[in-house]
Amino acid sequence: MGNLFGFAAFGATRPSATRPVVTPENGAATPDDWAKDCSSPLLRDGTEWRAAWANFLTANLRGLVRGSGVTDNNTDDNLVARAVRSDGLNRMNAGGTANAITLTPVAPAPAFASLADLVNVPLRFTVAATNNGPATINVNSLGARPAIIPGGATMVGGELPAGSIVTAMYDGTNFQIISGSFGLRVLPSLTTFFVNATTGSDGNDGLSAGSAFATIQGAVNAIAARYIAPAGVLINVANGSYAGFNIAASLIASWTITGNTGSPASVLVSAATNSVNRGRALSITRGVIATVQGIAMSSTQENWANSGGTLTLSNINMQANVSFYSGGTYYGGYTLLIGNINFTGNGFGFAIASLGGVLSFGFSDGVGSNALTLTCSGTPVLSSGNVLASAGGTIVAYPSAATMVGAVTGTRYIANTNGVINTNGGGVNYFPGSTAGSLSTGGQYI
């Protein structure tokens, strides 16, 4: 229906087919004024209404209704309400590419004249292609600006799924994605995160050295809460001191946590009391696959792989603790020791495999191998066995790949309650110790 809000549409005589040109008489600083009635029917001392004022109101109503896409209808008393409710003036046509999005208002809504016009204006659009990295938004060719997700993190890929309806708002620097299809974001490739105890903050996104997390646990928690990572993640940990951490089941395929492989002592991960990660410098559980390398561990309890978790330790300094073994694997967990492992201090023992867990000293299958050099520095004094296999746990060593260096004061090994130690021909003196190993209640040493 044409002639929306038109005067002739409601029976007025002498309307104009074109809008007369007029220049408003008010200045920039003129205060608001109001219309007033005549003081009596006989006096013409009230406000004079001119066509220019009525045309101005009519033009603005037409712009609101037509710009929102609502159908013209001079018989609809809720036409303006429908226009406002539709939010049509904020609908955008999306173009560009997956990571460089362009937006233009859906016609006949007016274009934006400047970036300043965009500040705090919600813009709705349908995503054409899923982003696979950091994304930008460019409205009316006014200039591309970064798109960020709630919390201020930079996108890494997958945050804007194709077909999703998204609302973005420009804050003067970035376009904040204030609604959309979020949930867990997919990391399309192996992604590196950073941790720095000195300069980092667990409120950061961790995606660069300049926006590092402050703690390893903070990094693990944030990554697990935000991402699906079918290719796994890397976490680079800067020199410093860190509290113990736990990695639980998530949608991260694998974790590789790397400190300083040339100087593991420069990255100390400790649990001085049982209140810190239950006394463990590190623990993994419930099917997690993790590699930890280039750190020094100090704990009050064993550092373990538990409940089907798979842990590879490489280039690690391990400190003996007085409460229990320094390393352990339980309930179907698997721990592989490779690279250079340095074991120091006096305490309970080096490692335990129990309750179906498997602990491997190096690895070799005739096709490939992972070498290990385990150095016992300073002749540790151990009150229990150097290694213990119990309750169906298995310790396996590969003498062709795993070399033992240094001496230990204490029992070489203990196998009991159907635990098995298999040295693949390494002999009864393979593990360091000052006294012979012992077997009981179905324990075996092969």
Walk me through the structure.
It is a single chain. This protein has about 450 residues and is mostly beta strands. The protein folds into two domains: about 90-180, no CATH class; about 185-445, Pectate Lyase C-like, CATH 2.160.20. About 10% of the residues lie in helices and about 35% in strands. The protein has helices spanning about 50-70, 80-85, 115-120, 215-225; strands at about 90-95, 100-105, 120-125, 135-140, 145-150, 165-170, 175-180, 185, 190-195, 225-230, 235, 240-245, 245, 255-260, 265-270, 280-285, 290-295, 295-300, 305, 310-320, 325-330, 335-345, 350-355, 360, 365, 370, 370-375, 385-390, 395, 400-405, 415, 420, 440, 445. The strands form five sheets. It has a 15-stranded parallel beta sheet that branches. Strand 4 and strand 5 (about 145-150) form a beta hairpin. The radius of gyration is 35 Å and the shape is rod-shaped. The model has no long low-confidence stretch (mean pLDDT about 90).
TL;DR of this structure?
With 446 residues, the chain is mainly beta.
| Model regions low in confidence, pLDDT < 50 over at least 5 residues | none
Helix count from the secondary structure assignment: 4
Radius of gyration: 35 Å
pLDDT average, as an integer?
92
Features:
eight-stranded parallel β-sheet, mainly beta, 4 helices, 15-stranded parallel β-sheet, Pectate Lyase C-like, 446 residues, 34 strands
